[in-house]
Amino acid sequence: MRSDVFETDGARLYHEVRGSGPPLLMISGAGGDAGYYSGVAEELADAFTVITYDRRGNSRSTGRCAEPMDLAQQAADARRLIESVAGGRALVFGNSGGAIIGLTLAALHPQVLTGLVAHEPPAVNVLPEGDPERGFFSNMAALYAESGAPAAGRRFARTTRGEGTYRWPDDLWERFLGNQDHLFGTEGPGFAAFHPDEAALKAAPFPIVLGAGACDRGAYYARPSAEIARRIGVPWAEFPGIHMEFLRDPATFAAALRALATQMLSREGQVPTEWVNGHTPGAEHAHGSREHRG
């Protein structure tokens, strides 16, 4: 793993790069931390150049301010990372708020994407009129204003299936706690106001797949994925597990993402050169390592 800091528009973005092959940028949601994807990135590093980062204002990145989060700025950060670190184009995976940022990136900067996987974007504004879950973010904002970040964090965790059933890495948990005020006070309004640009997404010159976890059927943060897929006429895929299965069971989640990402890139004509040119040095050793892991 190689880590570095990238300077962009008033912020220094901490990022990590693993592996080699077609670039895969992974965008985090609430808490904006690269550490959510560490396990998945290690699993996929044999086939992809996996780029993860702490989003602006979160964890080891700078740029925190009192103004509400601007999704266009978040998309611009991702674009500049792709241009600087990924050679100009990348397949993008985003979970939760990261999926919202990915959809914004696809609409505003389509030239830097080879594809997009948007996993469980909590785009509550696409839910039917009168659906009580459309008010999730406004309810969270009211709770945060009244009782502060710890109360909002507990409520947030209770609404996310599977949380509390596994242990987060200690360093990730510590950084997340430091990001809570930024999440609920600054980032929440941006996610709450999101409406997908359906015309731009329909016109995207690359494959887009929406998806959600098998354990999240009916959840407010999973239901919008199917509705957005229907509206823009793209495939929808069921992933294994819960909202953050990539943290609970990175090997299982990576296997699903590997298959989908490989198919998407192959359709774009971007078959990894190792498969085109033949034998890859060290393949026997890698195969032995996988067998040893079981």
UniProtKB/TrEMBL annotation:
Alphabetized SUPFAM superfamilies for the sequence: alpha/beta-Hydrolases
Biased composition range(s): Basic and acidic residues: 282-294
Gene Ontology MF terms in the entry: hydrolase activity
Keyword Hydrolase: yes
Domain of life, per lineage: Bacteria
InterPro entries, per database record: AB_hydrolase, AB_hydrolase_1, AB_hydrolase_fold
KW Hydrolase (keyword) present: yes
Sorted UniProt keywords: Hydrolase
PANTHER family registered for this protein in UniProt: AB HYDROLASE-1 DOMAIN-CONTAINING PROTEIN, HYDROLASE, ALPHA/BETA FOLD FAMILY PROTEIN
Protein name stated in the entry: Alpha/beta hydrolase
Source organism of the structure: Streptomyces lancefieldiae
